[in-house]
Amino acid sequence: MPAKKSSKRAVKTPAKKAAKRITKAPAKKASKRVAKKKTPAKKAVKKAAAKAAPLAAYNAKRDFKRTREPAGKVPKRKGKALHFVIQKHAASHLHFDFRLELDGVMKSWAVPKGPSLDPSVKRLAMEVEDHPIAYNTFEGTIPEGEYGGGTVMLWDRGTYEAEDGGGADSLREGYERGDLKILMHGKRLNGSWVLVRMKRPGRPQWLLIKHDDDYANTKKDIVEKEVTSVVTKRTMDQIATGRRVWHSNRS
Ligand code: MN
């Protein structure tokens, strides 16, 4: 008797399981297929949200009805060259915003003293929220009382690349490791530079250092010497009093 029972069970159970498997699997797939077909609008919304998400911190800090700064969007990548921009920013404290394009946004650091061409000088660079690439052409004033209120000058711009020639992968790796070695091709800043992240708790702090090469210079104080916009040739005062409207497509 017990032998009979167990043999019955042995036959029955796998058959049941198999049947379950057969009826269950196609039903699941079908429902997934239907769901996919049903929601093209939802998909587009999700896609847009994912695109904006990298700049959520940037957008949250700004009221775009009050500031002429661009809203944060991640554009489709156009060319191969990655751009950098440095903006002189007279906010509550004067500083230089050092921005490097990577993965559709501008990785950004606030450098209180600005860059130095002297390889023995390490400049503090406080990491801030990623900025949109459209910010690269922003020069003008941010209204007082708004986030970063004050005058912004395009102090330098150009392209940059990973020093080891490894492209965006290498840059991403260097950024994550906290040791970002780059070659800059700007009007004022050129050659080899490094950003090194300090091991400190809290908001990430880095050091911006010029490597010793043909562009290094221990005598020239570039921040003191270059006091006009690299694009419009205006001084900070001229930008502050100017009434020019910002055009995002200015080249
Ligand atoms: Mn700033």
Features:
alpha+beta, eight-stranded antiparallel beta barrel, disordered N terminus, 6 helices, binds manganese (II) ion, 251 residues
- Number of H/I helices: 6
Strands of the widest sheet, in order across it, are: 1-2-3-4-9-8-7-6
Spans of at least 5 consecutive residues whose pLDDT stays below 50 are 1-39
Percentage of β-strand residues? 25-35%
| End-to-end Cα distance | 91 Å
Q: What's the mean pLDDT score? A: 83
How much helix, percentage-wise, in residues? 25-40%
Provide a concise account of the structure shown.
The chain is α+β, with helices and mostly antiparallel strands and 251 residues long. It is 30% helix and 29% strand. The chain has two domains: 2-38; 75-241, no CATH class.
Provide structural commentary:
By secondary structure, the chain is an alpha+beta fold. It folds into two domains: 2-38; 75-241, no CATH class. The chain has six helices and nine strands; from the N terminus they run αααββββββαβββαα. It has helices spanning 2-38, 40-52, 56-60, 167-177, 222-225, 236-241, and strands at 82-90, 94-102, 105-111, 122-131, 140-142, 150-162, 179-186, 190-197, 205-210. The chain has an eight-stranded antiparallel beta barrel with strand order 1-2-3-4-9-8-7-6. The chain is globular. The model is unreliable at 1-39 (pLDDT under 50). Bound molecules: manganese (II) ion (MN). The site of manganese (II) ion has 6 residues, from strand 2. Manganese (II) ion binds next to strand 2.
